[in-house]
Amino acid sequence: MSSLKSEFNLSTLPTAIEAEKAVVGALLVDAPYANNICLEAGLEGQHFVNPIHAVIYDTITSQITSGKVVDAIWLHGELALTHQGIHLHLLTELATFVPSLVPLAGWVRHVQAAFVRRGLQIALGNGVRELQDGVPTVEVLEDVQSELQRLAKGVSIRESRTYKQLLQDGLHRYIEGDDANRIIKTGFAALDEMSAIGAKDMITIGGRAKSGKTIFALNIIANIANASLSQPKNRILIVSLEMSAPQIIDRLVANQSGLTTKRLRAGRLQTEGELRAMEKAMNTLSEWNLVIRDDIQELSAIISTARAMAGQPKGLKVLMVDYLQLVKVPRRDIREQEVAEVSRALRLLALETGVLVLALIQLNSNGTARESAAIWMDATAIWNISSVNTAGELAEKGENTDESHRMIVIPFQRDDQSGVSCMVGFDGARARICAE
Question: What is the pLDDT of residue 317?
Fold first, then answer.
């Protein structure tokens, strides 16, 4: 059956023009990032109903595949002579149409879904006409089936679970207990009791400078890595924007060996005890499915890297970002808006991929962040690590502190009591935190 789209009134067919504009605009704003999202989804030019959008999409993606740079000026020069409807002001309008790249995957799905719905409507309409013209029923069914197979090829539309399915899932959880694959233990029993976390959650770990928030997060990562060795999808991604990858390794080795980071940096380990501790630590670390990236700072690069890893057979269990305020976002003049966009993107990533996100945040001397409002809106829970005084209470500014302890304070969490806390042992020299 050949497509008879010309015989149908376009206004009566399903379209997603706004989503098409957003996808094309995203390619003009950040072509490499947007191209990765579109390729992962299998988006093609034929999925666009607007021929101008289709031409722009095919041209940009072809250019990116060839490893070339794309911008509106180049695109206008490339298409202006062959396509009269493509003007520079149109390309500029498309680029400014996109407020944020965070919902791009959703826009792509809208474009594909509209393409499939149009095809279904056309295929069924053509089938009815063939029946009216006396074409044998078997032939009509074969033609319709062939057209449906063509539509489905290369297009993956993720369907939402129905209301009844959600109820059935809930009943199973209430009787059998929550899915063991969703719940993720931090390795700190008191913390797990106060604040249970799991897949699709975003936990922000806050702390002042040198409070130990990175050490705290790395201890959680170490505990999760050790507990997940037998799980098929146990990969962990650490995106470090403050420390280099070797510095992260130093802290992980110190944590597992019991040697101080100062001793490790000095090198030339010689005693039998040191060498044995090092060997044991290296054997443990080599078993972890851990990826450390200190070379990506842009939000789009972090999201695309995590999404790509989550879609691979090895999957992605945990994403740690150290720290949130250092992530770069293009075209934002106000710092609070930048952090809000980063926070929202990480939250949506967790919901989309099922990854547990640990997002570290830097707190000021008052124990808060300027961008707290946006972060509180997105976080599943907020854990702050704070110094304590010799009496075991939160230390005030200028007060003598007990450097062998820290307090984990939970000022906010969605699914349990807020304003709770627990004490932990702290050994900064060995990058270790232990339960009290």
Answer: 94
Cα 162 to Cα 14, 74, 111, 352, distances in angstroms: 22, 46, 22, 17
Same domain for 79 and 207: no
Clarify whether residues 367 and 408 are in a common domain: yes
So what's the pLDDT on residue 161?
61
Coil, strand or helix: which one is 154? coil
- Tell me if 157 is assigned to some domain: no
Q: How far apart are CA 52 and CA 142, in angstroms?
A: 33
Q: Residue 213 and residue 49: Cα distance in Å, rounded? A: 50
CA dihedral (196, 217, 396, 324) in degrees, to 10, reads -100
What are the counts of helices (DSSP H) followed by strands (DSSP E) for the chain?
16, 11
Residue type, 83: H
Within a domain: 171 = no
CA distance 77 to 326: 36
Its pTM stands at 0.66
Distance CA 268, CA 225 (A): 28
pLDDT on residue 63 = 85
Whether 195 and 281 map to the same domain: the answer is: yes
Domain that holds residue 246: 183-435
**Do 122 and 195 lie in a common domain?**
no
Length of the chain in terms of residues written: 436
First to last CA, the chain: 72
Q: Are strands 183-184 and 197-198 parallel, antiparallel or unpaired?
A: antiparallel
The reply to whether 17 falls in a domain is: yes
117 and 245 within one domain: no
Q: Which of 75, 53, 73 is nearest to 64 (CA)?
A: 75
Residue 191's pLDDT is 94
pLDDT mean over 9-15 = 68
Q: CB 205: neighbour CB atoms within 10 A? A: 26
Q: What is the DSSP string of 194-241?
A: HS-EETT-EEEEEE-TTSSHHHHHHHHHHHHHHHTTTSSS--EEEEES
Determine, yes or no, domain membership for 239.
Answer: yes
What values do phi and psi take at 184, rounded to 5?
-125, 120
**What CATH number is associated with residue 299?**
3.40.50.300
